[in-house]
Amino acid sequence: MSESLTDMLDKFTDDLSGCMHASVVDVSTGLALVAKSNSTEVSGEGTDAFHADLYRMSQKLLADLPMGDEPREIVMRSQQATFVSTPLESTGYILLVVTGADTTVGFIQAMMRKHASRIEEGVGALVG
Question: Which of 57, 87, 92, 114 has its CA at a distance of 20 to 30 angstroms from the CA of residue 48?
Answer without folding.
Answer: 114
